[in-house]
Amino acid sequence: MGTYRRCVPGGERRFALSGETIAATMGRKSFSIPRGDTEAVLYEAVADHATIRFGTTITAVEQDADTVRVTLSDGSTEHADR
d(Cα 81, Cα 64) in Å, to the nearest integer? Predict the structure, then answer.
């Protein structure tokens, strides 16, 4: 089992728990990562490479042989090559 590490935005480790400790306290199949932590890690990984939009969802998807187009809940549309 690995180790769960929680770091502050600058990368400094706040705390760490071993997989064995987590399994002993929560069971082997139970593991919880707070949604905000997951969101922060994913955002930091792609922020320099993608535009992130909060507060909108995909309402429609169209696809042809070359392109995928999505309509978002704010009325905007986006497209990408396949």
Answer: 10
Q: Are 73 and 61 in contact (CB under 8 A)?
A: no
Identify the residue whose tokens are 């042989």: 65
**Rounded to whole angstroms, how far apart are CA atoms 41 and 38?**
5
Residue 69 contacts residue 59 (beta carbons within 8 Å) = no
pTM of the model: 0.48
Task: Check: CB of residue 9 under 8 Å from CB of residue 40.
Answer: yes
Residue-wise pLDDT tens digits, 36-45: 888 888 888 9
CB 13 within 8 A of CB 5: yes
The Cα–Cα gap between 78 and 76 comes to 7
User: Cα(15)–Cα(3) distance, rounded to whole angstroms?
Assistant: 10
